[in-house]
Amino acid sequence: MTDFSALLLPDRGQAAHVIQLVRAAQLEEWLGTQPERVRAATGAAGFKAKPGEFAILPGLKAEEWSAVLGVGEAPDPFDLAAAAARLPEGSYRLSEPLPAGAALGWLLAQHRFDRYRSEAEPAAPRALLTQDAAHIDEALALAGAVARVRDLVNMPANDLGPAELQAAVESVANACGASTRVTRGDALESDFPLIAAVGRAAGAARGPRLIELEWGDAAHPRVALIGKGVCFDSGGLDIKPASGMRLMKKDMGGAAHALALAELVMRTRLPVRLHLLIPAVENAIAGDAMRPGDIFRSRKGLSVEIANTDAEGRLILADALARAAEAAPALMLDFATLTGAARVALGPDLPALFANDDGLAEALLAAGTAAADPLWRLPLWPGYRDMLKSDVADLNNAPEGGFAGSITAALFLERFVPAGTPWAHLDTFAWMPTARPGRPKGGEALGLRAAWALLRARFAPAAAG
């Protein structure tokens, strides 16, 4: 993982190039205060102060050059990202106080996933100096969490199966002083039958498991984080077409989000009793694969008829949600790359938010807006519950017709959450299909920062302020 610690440093007067921040509406006024050499440089560069646009400005001496960067009227965490990715190597300071959250874009613009490149791009670190030293650790932790999501999602399935996902959780647990428990084999078959059913076709080497992590003082409020860990999704016997399978290494994106959020909780010592649950499987095809029409009894006791083997994520989450609920948490959050229907409705940028508590939903939406990590709420519409009925079992995992696919998936999950337990479900894409400053094409954390802002505000309000 990228080491961000040398990229954001306390400003103690070190030598550094200055970056001036200018908004388009202020450009003419700003140019009027600049010497001729600066006006000539910005004119030659065609600088219009559009967000992310920047130009190098000459000084009186060759080494005294500076830069000007266009930013939007409203602060954005990625305001500094374009400059951080393209400025020459060296140290920089802003001409004004660091905008709220802007350090994140500076750091993430320098994150690289180059594990598989024989000729990796040479590192050219750009360090940002800030007088807001109190928030350096927070920015570094958040950038590390986003980078963890990206790195895990970008890993190919041949190098990231259930065992490797387990190893990633155990590595974080060991670093943070947490305990782990892994259920697999016969114990999984008896205790978590839906997880076992989805993952059994992958064979022993990539066998299914439930990975659990616990951390914190038992006297603190209990928070359960659950992440869908389908390390590759072929669709099972209801096999996906090639175009639908191409990105299915990212179907463990929910697990990556939950693990990264858990690490943030532990590294910042949020006063909660943390319970992380990751059902890790590969949805493969073999002679013992689950079949359409099969019926399995879930951990909660509800029987589920398999109408579509490609609706596997909700099955493994159901057993994990049931396990989390047994400890009576004060809050349950799950993350999953669950439905294409959510992407049809909201596109790649907006995770669909479902919640059984209006106050929790409103708090998450507000947190997402404040963190520039927006969510969009969709309803747990009770009128669609009948779509989940089965002629032969308690539930059907995939209603016919395709209507309201993301809603019916969330309603399926809701059946495994006890009434009165605050719960939110984020149906996230976990992928950036087109590169933007600070956000390369590939794995991406979408909804992570919103959830983190919610947890800080709810369980450590003084720190959040």
Automatic annotation (TrEMBL):
GO terms, molecular function: aminopeptidase activity
Keyword 4Fe-4S: no
Keyword Cell membrane (UniProt): no
Pfam family, one: Peptidase_M17
CDD domains to which the protein is assigned, alphabetical: Peptidase_M17
PROSITE patterns the UniProt entry points to: CYTOSOL_AP
Record's keyword terms, sorted: Aminopeptidase, Hydrolase, Manganese, Protease
Sequence ranges assigned to domain Cytosol aminopeptidase in this UniProt record: 308-315
UniProt cross-references to InterPro entries, sorted A to Z: Leucine_aapep/pepB, Macro_dom-like, Peptidase_M17_C, Peptidase_M17_N_1
Superkingdom classification of source: Bacteria
Family (UniProt): Belongs to the peptidase M17 family.
The protein's name: Leucyl aminopeptidase family protein
Organism of derivation: Sphingomonas morindae
